[in-house]
Amino acid sequence: xxxxxxxxxxxxxxxxxxxxxxxxxxxxxxxxxxxxxxxxxxxxxxxxxxxxxxxxxxxxxxxxxxxxxxxxxxxxxxxxxxxxxxxxxxxxxxxxxxxxxxxxxxxxxxxxxxxxxxxxxxxxxxxxxxxxxxxxxxxxxxxxxxxxxxxxxxxxxxxxxxxxxxxxxxxxxxxxxxxxxxxxxxxxxxxxxxxxxxxxxxxxxxxxxxxxxxxxxxxxxxxxxxxxxxxxxxxxxxxxxxxxxxxxxxxxxxxxxxxxxxxxxxxxxxxxxxxxxxxxxxxxxxxxxxxxxxxxxxxxxxxxxxxxxxxxxxxxxxxxxxxxxxxxxxxxxxxxxxxxxxxxxxxxxxxxxxxxxxxxxxxxxxxxxxxxxxxxxxxxxxxxxxxxxxxxxxxxxxxxxxxxxxxxxxxxxxxxxxxxxxxxxxxxxxxxxxxxxxxxxxxxxxxxxxxxxxxxxxxxxxxxxxxxxxxxxxxxxxxxxxxxxxxx
Length: 488
Hints:
By secondary structure, the protein is α/β, with parallel strands linked by helices. It is 43% helix and 12% strand.
């Protein structure tokens, strides 16, 4: 039987609360205090999208979503909720699932090259100030101009060292490169590696098409990122997910308003995306969210408090599920009022009061109708999930990973010639030539050496820029929406 594509029923109240597939890429919000049922709502939505053939990407921040790969029945609550809602015979089922892990321990390794990440996002991960971020951008520009690939962290470390040692020669063309800024960048890179994040940068880089797959019966694959360890580095977690969104925007073709999304992206712990983000980055985030809809991607933010999301972004989230909020502090009370004001009013419902009274698994729901207008808010019970609530055992997870068609591709690392190897080779060649130069009465001046190194590299740079390798070089500097312009 072909998957249904008419509606995605998520809750039952006075009326059924169902998202229309062609309105699902208008984004959404799942909000509520800890323990009110956000994770179950996320799972129900993911299951519904999978049923109609829409792939899903989600981060498992608490380690309790892996059971979606297997049928439920392990806990009594789903069946009891189904009976309460009069759903008739309730069946349990699992969903096609692919596991990913930045650290390569609980899923297929996820990698990006340093060039793909780009200086703006790396500056945030490294916690650089404006001056230091500017120097990092210059390092990328120097590498780009000279055909030097920045693939992993050792490439970036080597490039930063080289730029620092030759700062005087670069000053006229690129601007000031201070030793203090180079030191801050290098210290940040060391700290990043100590967190284990070095495994994330390198090749083979993630092919985003591997996220947009369907499984048996045409069901969308649910991609689950193991994020419990990644969450120990909140900025890396948030920046990694933002990088994925930017890459999806840049790589996917325009599709206008499709009958259903090509991919739905759940951004859990969404407050981390906006926390301490400079205005330039917030502006880019807003731009990505606004424009990615035309690529057929729906983004659903999951967070405790709707105030965690800036108003400019909140206004773009058409499908909303609001679980209970507490009103103990003035900020809590403001959040309740703000959440209530964002819903289309319902004459029969005191929204502000209801938000503080909702039980676990109960929510205020408003979705977009066929004309794209929000439906009146309704108090409703979230449907039960069909998949297993208990997380997979390590053995069950390992079995699913090894059975995946992707197994073996991302598990093998590739370390091709890039900035580190080229700079190391040039330094060794320079050291070997130094004695002969002295015998001929020639001094090995730094400027001459630098010019010689880059002169040799420039010969291959033109070819590289015109190739796939070249496009990878410029991706994070000139081609990324987060770096200043659209990739070509």
